[in-house]
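Thread: Newbie trying to understand structure tokens

Hi all, I'm a second-year student working on a class project, and my supervisor (Dr. K.) asked me to get a predicted structure for one chain before our next meeting. I've only ever worked with sequences, so writing a 3D structure as a token string is new to me. If someone could post the tokens and maybe explain what I'm looking at, I'd be very grateful. Here's the chain:
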Amino acid sequence: VTRLIDMGVEPYLLSSAMLGVVGQRLVRTICPKCKTDFLAPAGLIEQYGWQDKGDVKLAKGNGCEDCYDSGYKGRVGIHEVLKTDAELQKLIISNPSRDELTEYLDHRDFDNLFVDGLDRALKRLTTIEEVSRVTSI
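---
Reply by user tm_fold:
Sure, no problem. This is what the structure looks like when written as tokens:
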């Protein structure tokens, strides 16, 4: 939203025309040949608020001939989708700052790229390190 307004799109035009915004990134997937599971350390469970999940299993690749010792082979997408509602339209018309948009999202059930990436890590498709690298968090 802020980028489009910075590029010169009038906020009133943007608010009426925008149905939603999609963000996506590709993260590397763990190599299936050298994939090993491990229990997440207590510090990591506390950091991401996974206390209610019991024993959290994550995975990593040790590196092998198939993945050229990287531990990764292939890619999978992580996504964030923001649908425009009446309240967001009103906010856009007011030419919001990035902080105002962030506050709006904090009060919604909005899963950003990082949250979707953590979900992929919990499913043992990728690693938390890879998600952090791609999302810059």
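A couple of things are worth pointing out once you decode it. The chain has a mean pLDDT of 93. The longest helix spans residues 113-122. Feel free to ask follow-ups in this thread.
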